[in-house]
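Before the break, one more example. Copy the sequence into your notebook; we will annotate it together after we see the structure.
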Amino acid sequence: MNRTILRFSFTIFFSLITFIVAAQKLQSDSKPFVLGTIESLDSKILVEKRILNIYLPEGYNPKDSIAYPVVYLLDGSADEDFIHIVGLYQFNTFPWIDRVPKSIIVGIANVDRKRDFTYPSSIASDTKLIPSSGKSDKFMAFIEKELQPYINSKFKTTASKTIIGQSLGGLFATEVLLKKPQLFTNYIIISPSLWWDDGSLLQLDGAILNANYKQKTSIYIGVGKEGLSPSDIPHVMEVDANLLVEKIKTTKSKSLSVYFDYLPEENHATITHQAVFNALRMIYPKKEE
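Here is what the structure looks like once it is written out:
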């Protein structure tokens, strides 16, 4: 009886040792799954440190001569849009799909998006709704004079630059398009909050409407079934998006390509992922076999 108990005890002991060794080996084989890098940029214009989440495509090598397009993603924090937008670009660069060029993704993490993405409003209810609003000019200058030069100096980049913005980010991307269109070659504008300042941005005539605007530019505007805006002055977001498209289509420039996308199955909260997927399909049409 005692021998049986002793033999059973040894069996349990050696089984436990085997389990511990296996667990330690499994633990030692684990390593982090790395999607990108986190960098910080001290902005003199904004007088603050900005966090950048940066994805480098597979095969990127700073010693190579190969250069890559850059995608600038507003709302680019890890807990916002960075991870799933990187996934969309990576998916579309798989060899068996090969629709979108391998790209560097720069996610601009937010500090105060309502401050950065809005220009001054003359509507009292707007400023009451967003007290910190009205500093988009500084954020635009940050992108032009600090962020883009920083990315171009640190990484191998081409002249192709895309901006992606949704909601207030879409408002900001639209403002850039109309005021500083040369900053980007592709604009992916989703559910833009054009109700801001009673839609005054829709009255602005930018350089892209002139016949002498020569930079090749693709513009995607996507909107879901979103209804009334949060402003006191009634605005229907789908209508405003249509007005923006019609405005851009009046351009005399032959260098613009405009794509409008209505997604009735999506709303303001769900639209971003599907809209970016569609935008990449429209901006980069399927290659001929």
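Strands lie at 37-43, 48-55, 68-73, 104-108, 157-166, 186-190, 217-224, 256-263. The chain has a mean pLDDT of 91. Try to locate both features in your own notes.
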